[in-house]
Amino acid sequence: MAGNDWINSYLEAILDVGPGIDDAKSSLLLRERGRFSPTRYFVEEVITGFDETDLHRSWARAQATRSPQERNTRLENLCWRIWNLARQKKQLEGEQAQRMAKRRLERERGRREAVADMSEDLSEGEEGDTVGDFLAHGESNRGRLPRISSVETMEAWASQQKEKKWYIVLISLHGLIRGENMELGRDSDTGGQVKYVVELARALGSMPGVYRVDLLTRQVSSLEVDWSYGEPTEMLPPRNSEGLNEMGESSGAYIIRIPFGPRDKYIPKELLWPYLSEFVDGALSHIIQMSKVLGEQVGGGHPVWPVAIHGHYADAGDSAALLSGALNVPMLFTGHSLGRDKLEQLLRQGRLSRDEINSTYKIMRRIEAEEISLDASETVITSTRQEIEEQWRLYDGFDPILGRKLRARIRRNVSCYGRFMPRMAVIPPGMEFHHIVPHDGDMDGEMEGNEDGKSPDPHIWGEIMRYFTNPRKPMILALARPDPKKNLMTLVKAFGECRPLQELANLTLIMGNRDDVDEMSSTSASVLLSILKLIDKYDLYGQVAYPKHHKQSDVPDIYRLAAKTKGVFINPAFIEPFGLTLIEAAAHGLPIVATRNGGPVDIHRVLDNGLLVDPHNQQSIADALLKLVADKQLWSKCRANGLKNIHLFSRPEHCKTYLTKIASCKPRQPRWLRNDDDDENSESDSPNDSLRDIQDISLNLKFSLDGDKNVGKENGDGSLDLDDRKSKLETAVLSWSRGVQKTTQKSGSTDKGDQNSGAGKFPALRRRKYMFVIAVDCGALSESVKRIFDALEKEKAEGSIGFILATSFNLSELHSFLVSERLNPIDFDAFICNSGGDLYYSSLHSDENPFIVDLYYHSHIEYRWGGEGLRKTLVRWAASITDKKGDDKEHIVVEDEKNSADYCYSFKVCRPGVVPPVRELRKVMRIQALRCHVIYCQNGSKINVIPVLAARCQALRYLYLRWGMDLSKVVVFVGESGDTDYEGLLGGVHKSVILKGVCSGESSQLHANRSYPLTDVVAFDNPNLIQTSEDCSSAELRESLEKLGVLKS
C-alpha cells in the first residue's frame, strides 16, 4: 500500500545487494524487467490494495540476518513472493472485471424487461443515462443540499409541527451504547455510529412535533463491560434547556435495551445474526406496550404507532424490516458501511478467499440483510452522494436509472406495474454547536492570561504539548484510529520529507487509546509501530505528538488547542464515507485538508474552508498543509468560511430535514379498530368495515374449498363480473359476522365448559395457555400431526392449549389434507396458508364453511405487492427455465394458476433438481424492482411467491399484535429441514422443537445453494430450542416439552 516505507526500504536493499546475488539465481522479475523503477512499480502497481503484513515480517527477518548469503537467499525468496503477488493481483482484477460485467449485463437485461412491461411510451422525462441525474428525487450534483436559510425559517417550521405527537423508533444493535461517557474506540463495533445514533435520538426527542423517540439496542449484562449497559432504560436529556419545554409523562428520548443473545456475554456484531429474531420479538412487545401508553397520554385512547422505524447498519436494517412488516409501519434505513463494498475491497486485497471472508465477517448474510432493507424501506438515508453512486448501485435492489423512470411515471400518475424503488435521501449528520466558542486569541496571549490567574489549561493540552520542543508552532491535527484505511503513515511520511513544513508546524496524531502496544489488535499495532519507525527514521522527536490516552470529553479541547496555534485539521483517509471530524474541526475554527474520495467532497462544497488532496499523493498532502500553514491570509479566509457556513450542518437542521423525509412517507399502521376499554376481556373486535372498504383494500376473498380463481376475473370483454364478485364479498362479510357477532359480551359470560362449541368466543386462540404451531414441511406432516396430538391429548381435551397449522398449502390443499387425515378443522384455532400469504380461523359454523379469512391480514401484508405486473414477470421467468432435449424444450417451471391466490402466486416445479436456487429468482425480481418473498416448498416441487414482508413467522407476530397471543407461550414444531423460509421459524422468544428424522433429507437440496450456512442465522445452542431423538414416540415428545418447561412432569 502506498505510504508503507518498509516497501521502499526492502526494494532498495534488493538493488543494493544486486552484485552479491549470482545472475543465475537472480529474481526472474528483476531480470526480465531490465531497467525500470522497481520501487515505483511495486508500490504503485503490485502492493497497492493488498495486505502485505506477511511480506513485512519476511523483510524484517531478512534485514536482521547477519549472514550475507542467507540474507541474499531471503531477499530472492521475497522477490519471488512479490512476483506471485503481482500474478495474484492480475487474477483478482480479472475476476472483478468479470463480476462487474456480469452485474452490468444482468442490470441492463432486467431494466429492458421492466421497461417493456411498462407498456406506455417513454417520455423525454424518462430518458437518460448519467448517474448524476438519478440521485434522490432528481437532486442535481451541482446544487447544494437544501438548507434552512434563517432562524425565522426554523421557527416558522417549528410552529407548524407543534400539533403533531410523533413516536419514532431507532434501532442500532451492535457495540456499547449509552448516553454519556461513550467508550468510542473501545472496539471496532463502538465507533462513530454509536455516537451518531445517540445524538440523533437526543436531538429528535427535543424537536417540535416529536413526542417520544426510542433507541433500541442490545442489553449487555456482562462482567466484562460496565453495569450501565445492562440497564433496561436510559433517558437521554436534551443538551440545552430549550428541549425541556412541554415535556409529557413519557415524552423525550430514551435508550431501550432489549435482552437477546447470550445474557452474560458481549459479542461482536458478526455473531449477533442468529439472535435477531429474538430481538424482533422483544422490540415488538415493547413497541406495542409503548403505543398503548402513548395512546392514553396523547392519542385519545387509541394506540400511537411509530411514524417510522429506522434501522442503522445491516443487522438493525434486517430487524427493522421484520418489525415494519409486523406492525405495518414505514421503515427507513441507513447503512453506515455496506457489505458489498467491503466484500469487493477484501477480494481485491487477495488475503482471504470468498469462503474465508464469509466465515470471518458473515458477509453474505450481511449483504442479504441490506437487500431486504432495500426491499422494505420507504427511504434510504445516506451521508453523501458517493455512497449512492459507488456503493448502493452495487446492489440488486437499487438501480438509479430504473428508479428515475419509475419516479417519472409516478409524477405523471402512470402505473409502474408493481415496481418499487426506495428513495435515496442525502442528509449529512448534524452537530450541536451551541456549546462551541471558537478561539480568537493566540498562544502567547493565552499563556499571559494564565499567568494573570485565569483558569488553567485543560489537562490534555499538557499531555500533547510535552511532546514538542516549540509548542507555539501551528499544530497539524489528525484524529483517527490506527487503521491502514486512515492513511496516517502517508501523512507522517509527507511531514517527515518536507523540511519547510517541519520548520513551520508540529504534528499531533490522536490515535485512540492504548495501554500496551502488545495488547492492541495486530492491524492497529502494525500501523502504530510503522508510524513510530517513521518518526525515528526522519528524526521527528520534538515535532510529533502521539498521546496514549484521551477522553471523549477531551476532543473539543484538542480542537481548541489546534485552533489556538492557528493550525490545520487533516483527514487523509483513502476513502472517507462522510467525515464528521471535518465538521467538528470547522466548528472550532480549523481549516481542513481532506481526502478527495467520499464525503469530504460534499462537506467542502458547502463549507469551502480548506483543500482536497489525493490521499495516495504524498507530495500533494505536504503542499496543501504547507500552503495553509504558511499563508495566513488563506488560513483566515478558510477559517471564516467554515465558521460562517457551519450552521448548515447543525443538528436541528439535520433533524428538520430528517423529519421532512418521514413526513413524505405514506402513513401506515394496523388497520383494525381496537376497543381498548374492553381489551382485557374481549375476544374479538368488530371489523366495522363497509363493503366498499373491503373492496378498496383488495382483500383476497377466494376461500371456497375448490380454490377457484375464476371468481371476479375479467370477462372476455375486459369487464368484471361485478355481481359474482359482490356476492362473494357479501358472503365473506356474513361468514365473518357469524363468527364475531356474539363476541360483544364479557368473557365472564362464556360457558367455560363449552369452549369448543359454537357458544365460545372467536377467535379461540386468545383463551389458550399455550399455542402449538405445527410447521412441519415435506411429506411428514400427517404423521407429525398425529404424534403431536397424541402427546398433548390430555391438554387438548381440557381446552387449555390450541393448535395452529402453518403450511405452504393453499386452502383447497389444506381442506383435502384435513379430510384425508380425518381431522376436524376446529382441532386448529388458525391456519397459516400459502407460506404466510393467507390467514384463516376455524369457523364455529363448520357445516356452512369451515374456514374464515382474516380480512385485515391482507391489508397488513400488501405493502409493495406487485400484483399482476409481478405475476407476468414470474411467468416469463418460468418460461425461460427449460431443458433442451434435441429440438424440443421441456419446461421445468409452469404456472399453477388454479392454486394461486391474490397474495400468493404458485408455480409447479417439474424437476426440482434442475431449477435455479431460490436466491437467483430473488435476484431477478429485485433487479426489476419487484419486491416479493420467494419460497421453494414441498420438497422443491412448488414455488410460492408472496408479499415481501409476509412469512409464516411474520403471521405469528401478526396474531400477537392482533389478538395478544403471547409469543413466549408459543411452541413451534419443525423438521430437520423444510421450505426455504425454514430458518425464520427457529428463532425468537417462542420455543422450537426440531423433530429428528423428519424432513432429514428430502429438502436438503433446497438449502444446498444457500448464500450462507444455516448456523449463521440459527442459534442451535438456544435454550428455547430442543431436538428430539430420532423418530421419537409421543411419550418422548412429551418429555421434550417438559424439558422446555411447557408441560409439567
From TrEMBL:
Residues 118-130 have a biased composition (Acidic residues). Residues 738-748 have a biased composition (Polar residues). Keywords: Glycosyltransferase, Transferase. GO terms for biological process: sucrose biosynthetic process. Its EC number is 2.4.1.14. InterPro entries: Glyco_trans_1, SPP-like_dom, SPS, SPS_C, SPS_pln, Sucrose_synth_GT-B1. Pathway: Glycan biosynthesis; sucrose biosynthesis; sucrose from D-fructose 6-phosphate and UDP-alpha-D-glucose: step 1/2. Residues 103-136, 669-691, 737-760 are annotated as: Disordered. It is an enzyme of class 2 (transferase). Belongs to the glycosyltransferase 1 family. Plays a role in photosynthetic sucrose synthesis by catalyzing the rate-limiting step of sucrose biosynthesis from UDP-glucose and fructose- 6-phosphate. Involved in the regulation of carbon partitioning in the leaves of plants. May regulate the synthesis of sucrose and therefore play a major role as a limiting factor in the export of photoassimilates out of the leaf. Plays a role for sucrose availability that is essential for plant growth and fiber elongation. This is Sucrose-phosphate synthase. It comes from Coffea canephora. The gene is SPS1.
